[in-house]
Amino acid sequence: MPDTLEPSGLRAALTTPLYRPRLRDTPLRDLIRFRRTGRLAWRSRLEAAALPEELKQAIIRLVKRTRLWRLEKAEVADELIAHFADGIARGETAQALLEDFGDIDAVAKLIRRAKRRNRPWVWHAWRWSFRLLVLLIGFYVFAFIRFAVGKPSIRIDYVGQLNAAITSVPKQDRAWPLYREALLSFEANNAALDRFYAELPDPVAAARDEASSRVLNEVTPTDAEWPQLVAWCNENQASISLVRAASAKRAFGFVLGRGNDADDPALKWDFSHDAKGGPLSQGALAGSLYVVPVPYLNRMRVLSDVLKADARVATHAGDGQRAIADILAIIGMADQLDLPILIEQHMRTSLYERALATMEAILADRPTLLDDARLVDLAHRVARVGGEAPNSLLDLSGERKTFLDFIQRFYTDDGNGGGRLASVVMDLGTMDVYFYGWSHGTLGGIPRKQPEWDEKAALALGAAGVSIVSARDEVVAEYDRLMAKAEARLARPLRESSGPGTPSVRDEVMAIVQSPTRFVRLMPVTSLTPSVDRIAERAEHVLGRREGLLVGIALELYRRRHDGRYPSTLRELVPTFLPEVPADRISGKPVSYRIIDGHPDIYSVGEDRDDDGGRAWQMQDVGPIREAVARWPVGSEANERAKDGDWILFDARPGASRE
Amino acid sequence: MRIERELMRGAGPVAVLRLLEGGERYGYELITLLEQRSAGVLAIGQSTLYPLLYNLEAKGLIASRVELAADNGRPRKYYRLTEKGKRQLAKERAQWEQLTLAMAKLGIVGG
After folding, report:
1. Angle at Cα A268 formed by Cα A266 and Cα A271, nearest 5°?
2. Structure letter (DSSP) for residue A616
3. B96 in A contact zone (CB under 8 Å)
4. d(C-alpha A389, C-alpha A465), whole Å
């Protein structure tokens, strides 16, 4: 209907009773303009048109079949009325017009499609958005179902693999039973050191029990607590002897996993219950390497503190044999800690450092305590601590097993190395955690706060999406690639693979974290790739100290044979006292040598590669920290400013810092 | 002669644009003119014309208005060519000319 047939204006609209059909049959856009056009009443117009009934019915059927909006239908109807009216006017019959027109249903479809193309862009945008939403929902439903039905297959018992090596050692050759006996005997015999093992209300406070640690580690003959320490060491020689005996055993022999050596009420270890006595839930990780408890590590640290203290006491008393026995026991303990996981390797290097520092202190404080033969024997033993490269001290193969154990528990397995994230990954949001107290024997679980239903739903939806893109084989391949790089770095002295522009596993992991798409696909890699650079540096620290101590022993032997005089250069020690002058582990040149205050000082130039004459780096209010400048930064870390100072490898001055 | 559907798909729209080049037309008129001026070759079915017109309108090549017919006083929808339609017609014309020339060189058509 043309736009201008009805009177327009507000007066006309207000004077027209609302019950008149024209208002209902007028499009809103006309009403807004105060026009009662009645354009939508196409049926009335069709009824009024002078057309044969069959044509009218055809128009009604076609217009209905278009399923268009009311106004569109009206437009189509008006056009068809005009079309057929023109045909009739030209003398055509209704039958002929219908035959020429064609299939009504087919035409209705074509007209519908064409008229919808004429709709406003907003309608098209909404339509496409709706389709996209449906597609997304459909995709997520599919992803969720796929995620929910996927089940991992735990095929390999990695804990069992490690235990097989442990249990293959005859029980009489295992050290742990003796260490355990020693620990229990300490607790039984001595109230003063109950602080180490007593049940404290706050496990964290136990970890910060500074007082007992200080007594063992820092008290010197000039301190007031010295007599207490001496008395304690003498009273506990039986227990300390047990520790020495244990350290001489072939293997550590701690059988891993719950229900084995880790569940020991006498030592207050309980990994089956949480702190309140309820069952500890580890979900899909139960029995995995990822959560295998190694509670003995802290105890070994404490025992090494005891041995260090005893060595100090023995040194002061002039008992060289006892002091050496203590040092060799610490080295033996370190040798035994060979579980190939990062946390144990850290403890291992720490124990080596303690042994070497203790020996250095003896040479500095009582250089004549040991006779030549004992010194030579000790030098031979120290020379066997590691080889040339960090991997001579480190074995991280267990980290790969831990990773693969994690993967097999959270990814499906298609039998060809492939698979996708499975719904058990939801366990990670709900499982209980372990708490390790450093100086506290009791280790248990803290129930994790269970997520609310909406958090669970969000986690499930997110995980379902991740399961689409996170492929097992890709995750494993990326981990293997990074670990191969890390292991390659450990296979030679770090100075050969350090500096700006050198590849860094840490940088590569950070690149994954910073890429949203890669992070989603490779999340396990970012969480489980061990921080190899730090442990590699610790291994270098041990090797550097070893070199320093060997030179220190050689200098002492030289001094004894040359009327108390030290050589002017280290070359004079070769070959009688040293096979060769060791290399500076940072610069690659021979280590540096100075006589300071009448005592020899062996040092490396430090990370700034600048010879500061044996001056250690100092931390304000703390003092010298030797290993602070013993760094081999790679990748982006290599661009950081190097600390100024030398890495002291051996300091024969009495009372010098050994840290 | 019945023209293959695929050929009609290309020829139909340009034929309609050409007819509108001469001025406004309404639907039945277009059907009659197409049949007459193409000697029945381009006899677009009546059911096909209106969807074709709506598609051309959606593309902005033609525009429409409703007016009371002078002959019978009934409302009738008239179509006219837009500027965009004129450009499109010129483009199609050039393509058809090239196509005809190529076909002639191949001996498919005379001339």
Report:
1. 120
2. B
3. no
4. 44
CA atoms in the 13 A half-sphere facing the CB of B108: 6
Q: A408: part of which helix (H) or strand (E)?
A: helix A397-410
What DSSP string describes A290-302?
GG---THHHHHHH
CB distance A391 to A490 below 8 Å: yes
Average pLDDT for chain B: 87
What pLDDT score does A439 carry?
26
Instruction: Name which of A591, A602, A504 is nearest A553 in CA terms.
Output: A602
The first and second tokens of residue A297, run together, are 């590590």
Angle at which helices A372-383 and A320-336 pack, to 10 degrees? 10
Q: B35 touching A, CB under 8 A? A: no
- pLDDT single digits (tens) B37-66: 887 777 777 778 999 999 999 999 999 998
Residues 6+ apart with CB under 8 A from A165: none
Candidates A286, A287, A402; CA nearest to A341 is: A402
The residues, any chain, with a CB within 8 Å of residue B85's CB and separated by 6 or more, are B17, B20, B56, B60, B61, B62
Q: How far apart are CA A38 and CA A558, in angstroms?
A: 119
Instruction: Give yes or no for B36 touching A (CB within 8 A).
Output: no
Q: What is the pLDDT of residue A463?
A: 72
Task: Count the residues in chain B.
Answer: 111
Predicted ipTM of the assembly: 0.86
Q: Which ranges constitute the DSSP H helices of A38-152?
A: 42-48, 53-66, 70-89, 94-101, 104-117, 121-149
Query: Are A173 and A249 a contacting pair, CB within 8 Å?
Result: yes
Task: Kindly list the distances between the CA atom of residue A238 and the CA atoms of A181, A242, A321, A326, in Å, as whole numbers in the listed order.
Answer: 11, 6, 16, 13
Residue in A with minimal Cα distance to B52: A114
Residues in chain A, pLDDT under 70: 1-21, 187-215, 274-276, 281, 428-451, 455, 459, 461, 659
- Mean pLDDT over B88-94 rounds to 94
Nearest to A2 among B45, B57, B66 (CB): B66
The reply to whether residue A114 touches residue B48, judged by beta carbons under 8 angstroms, is no
Give the type of residue at A236: N
Q: In what helix (H) or strand (E) does residue A184 lie, and over which residues does it extend?
A: helix A176-189
Secondary element (H or E) of residue A317: helix A296-317
Q: Are A512 and A518 in contact (CB under 8 A)?
A: yes
d(C-alpha A114, C-alpha B64), whole Å: 15
Length of chain A: 659
Q: In the prediction, which pLDDT does B62 show? A: 96
Instruction: Count Cα atoms within 13 angstroms, Cβ side, for A330.
Output: 30
Q: How confident is the model at residue B68 (pLDDT cuts 50, 70, 90)?
A: confident
**A30-78 residue pLDDT tens:** 888 888 888 899 999 899 888 999 999 999 999 999 999 999 999 999 9
* Per-residue pLDDT at A449: 58
The DSSP call for residue A646 is B
| Mean pLDDT of all residues belonging to chain A | 85
Any A CB within 8 A of B51 CB:
yes
> CB B46 to CB A110 under 8 A?
no
Nearest CB neighbour to B50, from listed A2, A79, A81: A79
pTM of the full structure = 0.74
Query: pLDDT at position A480, please?
Result: 95
